[in-house]
Amino acid sequence: MTRTALTGEEVLTAAARLVRAHGPGALTMRRLATELGTAVTSIYWHVGNRESLLDALVARTVQEMGAIRPVGATPHARIVSVARALRTALRERPHLIAMVHERGLTERMFWPAQQALVHEAHAAGLRGELAAEAVRAVQFQVVGYVLTERNRERSPQQHPSEGELWDAPGAGDDPALARALAAPADTERLFQVSLDALVGCLLAPGDDAAKAPWRPDPDDGGSVAVSGGPYPQ
């Protein structure tokens, strides 16, 4: 039976569900109409043509990414909470994020999370280039980690596996290390460990050198500026 009552929001929700599950190529007006139990003409009435629908999905994704808010009692905890929420949001909607990037809106999508990180960097006493580096370091850490996770998930099974490669001699006669490296990687724990270490270093007390020991020496031709924003694909 053809459905008569339909809203634009329901159309967008169903379209987003299709894209998340199967990618943008699976989003056709006919398939979307079938999913919703309605006529194709009804889809056009609510959202226009397919390009208009994709634009609406991108705008909705940007809006959803703006809902990230820090939680916690300290700048460290709040920065970590933003990073964790950002990772979750990126992993939940990879195809939609790719569509945002293709339309040149990546920076706008990351803007709310960056603003939250800026606020917490200032609350921790960082200013200027140190604050900018902290914001971008966290952002690059999150996006780089998500890209690594996705590449591992999509890669073919490896032969030999990690478990077959690692033994005690190969691990420097450290049996516990060999067992740990032979086991599957705990990506949740690795993310938390690396994130805590990064944020702890970024917010470390002391002079500028102590806060950012990784900073390149300008006398050696290094630069503290990092331009552009990362994005998942």
TrEMBL record:
- Region Disordered, as annotated, extends over 151-172, 208-233
What PANTHER family does UniProt report for this protein, alphabetically?
A: HTH-TYPE TRANSCRIPTIONAL REGULATOR RUTR (PTHR30055), TRANSCRIPTIONAL REGULATORY PROTEIN (PTHR30055:SF151)
Q: Which residues bind DNA?
A: 28-47
UniProt cross-references to InterPro entries, sorted A to Z: Homeodomain-like_sf (IPR009057), HTH-type_TetR-like_transc_reg (IPR050109), HTH_TetR (IPR001647), Repressor_TetR_C (IPR004111), Tet_transcr_reg_TetR (IPR003012), Tet_transcr_reg_TetR-rel_C_sf (IPR036271)
Gene3D superfamilies given for it? Homeodomain-like, Tetracycline Repressor, domain 2
Question: What would you give as a GO molecular function for this chain, any one?
Answer: transcription cis-regulatory region binding
State whether keyword Repeat applies.
Answer: no
Give the record's keywords alphabetically.
DNA-binding, Repressor, Transcription, Transcription regulation
Official protein name in the record:
TetR family transcriptional regulator
Matching entries from PROSITE patterns are given as: HTH_TETR_2 (PS50977)
